[in-house]
# Entry
Amino acid sequence: MNEHLNNIIVAKKELPSSLVKLGWVLTMLGLVLVGISYITDAQRAVQNNLIGFTFLASVSVGAVFFIALEYIAGAVWSTPFRRVTEFLAATLPLLIILAIPLFMNMHNLFEWTHTDVVTSDKVLHGKASYLNVNSFTIRFAVMMAIWMLFYLVFRKHSFVQDLNHDQKHTSINIKFAAVFIPVYAISISLFAFDWLMSLTPHWFSTIFGVYYFIGSIVCTLSVITYLVVSLAEKGYFFKGITEDHYYSFGALLFALLSFWAYIAFSQFMLIWYANLPEENFWFIARWKNGWEYISSALALFHFWIPYFMLVSRPSKMNKGNLKRTALLLIAAHFLDLYWMVMPTFHASPVFSFHELAFPMLTLGLIIVVFAIQSKKYNMVPIGDPKLERGIDFRL
Amino acid sequence: MANSLYSIVATFESPDTIIKAAKAVRDAGYKKFDVHTPFPVHGMDKAMSLPETKLGFVTLAAAILGAVGMISFASWVAAVDYPLVIGGKPYWSWPAFVPVTYEIAVLASVVLTVVIMIVFFFKFPNISHPLHDTPYMKKVSSDKFGVSIQAQDELFNEKKVRELLQSLGGNVDAVYYSDEFINFKPQLFEPKFLLLLAGIAMASSAGGYLLWNKILFLPPYDWMMEQQKVKPQMVSNFYSDKFAMRQPVEGTVARGYIPYPYKDKPDDAGKYLVNPLLPTKQVLELGKKKFLTFCSPCHGNFGQGDSRLRGQFPNPPSLHSDKVRGWPDGNIYHVITNGQNVMPSYQYQVSREERWAIILYIRTLQRALNAKESDLQ
Amino acid sequence: MSATLMDYTKEVPVVEGTPTAASLDEAISKPLYTFPKRNWFIGLAISGSMLLFGIITVTWLLWKGVGIWGINQPVEWGFDVVNFVFWVGIGHAGTLISAILFLLRQKWRTGIARFAEAMTLFAVLCAVQFVLFHTGRPWLAIVYLFPYVTQHGVWVNFISPLEWDVFAVNTYFTVSAVFWYVGLIPDLATLRDRATTKMRKTVFTILSLGWRFSNRHWQHYERAYLIMAGFATPLVLSVHTIVSFDFAVSVIPGWHSTIFPPYFVAGAIFSGFAMVQNVLIVTRKAFNFEYLITMDTIEKMNKIMLLTGSMVGFAYLTESFIAWYSGNPFEQFTFLNYALGPYGWSAAVLISCNVLLPQLFWFKKVRTSLLASFILAIFVNVGMWFERFIIIVVSLHRDYLPSSWRMFIPTVWDFGMLIGSFGLFFTLVLLFVKFLPSISMSEIKSVIPGAQPSHHGNGAHHG
# Structure
């Protein structure tokens, strides 16, 4: 079709075997640890299961969001790398598997599932029509169905386009992306309210959905950035990836993590300042008995350190720096989820192999799914009309 | 213009040719040359081999200066110089200083970056540069792309330069300047000018001080202090009795002033009143303080009736008599509140809590003089 | 839905046709050299009379005090703060267009950035007057708004959100002004070289500081522009965030909501874009800038309005849901009162103008219709004004104690200030388009076809 396609190294190329191996090892080891964890301390295992589940949701749903974002914003610099995002979104069905043990152990997680507590508590009684097992399950099923539907539509049109190079697929995907954005906004908010905010059913914060959303987006972009940079270093995608491409990843990551800090600080500031007893206990619980160190670490690792790692212009283009920052932010998102979930159940921070099992399993699963996908499908959307502009992209 | 040569200039039509020309001039080894374009042309910095701009460091320094300066200032004001409890928060409430610190950091970095760029990087304002007002400048300010090689360059040779530029396809011209024009130095650091600046600064600070501390509080600027409202002791035509102050409704009780129901009934007071306080260290210290202030001038420092007033008045009684020791707390309370014989009422000097604290202190004194067996063990 | 399929392999051109750089200079600087048309004078007469009304109001206000307004207990904040938030919000679009879209490399901003920035300055000026005059005795404001050393030994209260506001709005105004001026310097130099009269030449020579288009300067200039955009972007978020803190840190039901910061910012962008859209459509027509401010630009503006409008709608949903979910009876009452209370009609205006009507922008026909865009933009601003009215007045008029419930009825002087601020704004806009280039000449010249070296494709970005 044009001379640029010659620059694309190999459309289909297996991942480096070391990465694939790492994925399988992490998955297997994670599975074993999860098993031990469930046998020795089911209570704690299910809490960690929730962290792993929400982490996977962050990455997979976030990936669908990024696909939609690229279409709706008409971005071209990310087009050559869109397959990375699409492969990541393929982890979406795994959410159901990770959710099964959670549904089986809902009693251990959610106070509002205890009918005796709810009937005697006026506040909980008031919200029982929202917080009950049936509507909770229905909401989750509907969300999953919506996310899957949009994912499959985007994927279908993107993959078919590889073969027929028809621009109408881009048009269709743009239209679906426009519909997806508002649907996503509502569903991800409710997802955060359901799975994370309702752990402390008396507590409420209107910004909480936005807070989870931005944390998940930072994490997804970190995963994408890490994979793109490390694969590009090994000669994947196309010849002549410029600093301008890397700069775009770095700058977007920088902007999003600053936005995370803005949202996190706003939530803290408003609750700290008004100091209302029905709200402030959530933060007080996270500022005593050792949790203050976790909270400070969160601010440090999710904002200050990555912020200064990316603040200068050359650092946003430096491949090694980008990879390090991305890894740090992935770890920071686990810390963020840990910080949201665990203080509800533990008076002071806890850490042992239980806390390692699910991060290993989820990261392993993501790599494995990615490896399987990249083996089957083109690494670069060769039929995309924006591809040429994306390859030629200059600041 | 019988003047000296400033530079040889050439204008080009397209961005591609100017990039090529800039590269050629650079490769020919000229140092004092410049490219003039109506808008920044991409890749030109590389073509001219310009070093990376250092402006980012200025910004970083300014941001740190602004942030550190502001948070220190806000902390000093709110926690040291003018501490006020706001919303029950600690004086040093760091989250509350984040917004102002952030704003000043942004303000400092943007303003300082631009000012330093204009003054030190550009050496502006400078409206007497030789290139100004030349036909060349009029072209590059609209749609032509120009290159200018200065006569001061070490390799400068008018003929060679002209040939080079012509070979690149440029429209070659020369720019001259008059000597007085180029020798003109801005007189920014002349002592007279600096003195003038200092004078203006002092006058405006003094003026500002006078204005905002004195003048604006004097007539005629105080007219809003006269408001249409009645104040205590004023005449009001609204009410038939012409009093601006109104009597409270009958039976009104002021805050903290519960009426004393046992006036002239010492026995009832003894019977029904119970000391609400416990003899803690804090209460006893309060009682001691108030006792020494109000009671000791007559009753003596230890309640033995041996004060320095002894002999000038009917002798005040000792508080260690069997009668007083046998009284319930309520009776003593009654005496302090109502007075007895020559002793006046102390209800306006000593609050209710303080009276009860004094009683506990008296009990301590009594116990000290007539200790029980158990106290001595 | 679109009849003609788009060609995604090509970039949408920023300007239509192939104008030359010289013709752009000519077209953009033309209003400066020609005697204005009759419509311009009619506009100036209308906005000038509105401004006059405002000046009369302010004079009376300074003489008599804020008692001439309709404010009362418990509605201590009335039109003054409503208008302040409204205008500050409008002021957000300029910096958004010039900074955020610059960082996002959206080239279509080139044609509209200049006067969006100018509108920012004017809108912030309009906003500042309200907070200044609502202090009661503004001539003393410097003493209690700024940390000015007085003999009273009193400092400002850095723990108060109102003090943060002083810092935020002043920083915002200063930074916007610097941003605007730095962007103007090359254009002023071009005007200097085009000047025909001595007067113009002197003025533009001084204002352009001696700019000579040197690439040794452009290099720093571009970096400075990038840095300023980088700082202005979080600044624009922080300003309306701090405005939202004025409300959200309190414990008033309907004010204390953690989503306020992003929700206020989205609302500000929404209303700002609507105002820019209105002025844009008129300017474009009046000066024949159709090929510089293309239909594509207008469509993108509409898309952003659709996006931000939906974000605002989403925030309404979240707030109402959490008000119910919180189980707090005061919150629940406040939200019911918004919809069903004595000011319920304003909630209806709000929802229809801010949430429902912008949904028409889903249709390409509406997005690309000048008339529809213009009318919808007006509706958006009406709706956003009522949003602030609801947040401030309707939240306050029902206090915790029913004995202090009271209605707010604006007086003629409340409207005087509002009308006066519109007069000030449009007068400044009209003067601006007459006396300064309303489109950045150096920027638009850098994005026309063939403006950049060929290996960079057609027209790489300024910056």
The CA atoms of residues 84 and 129 of chain C lie 8 Å apart. Chain C is about 70% helix and 0% strand. Chain C touches chain A through 47 residues (CB under 8 Å). The longest helix of chain C spans residues 161-194.
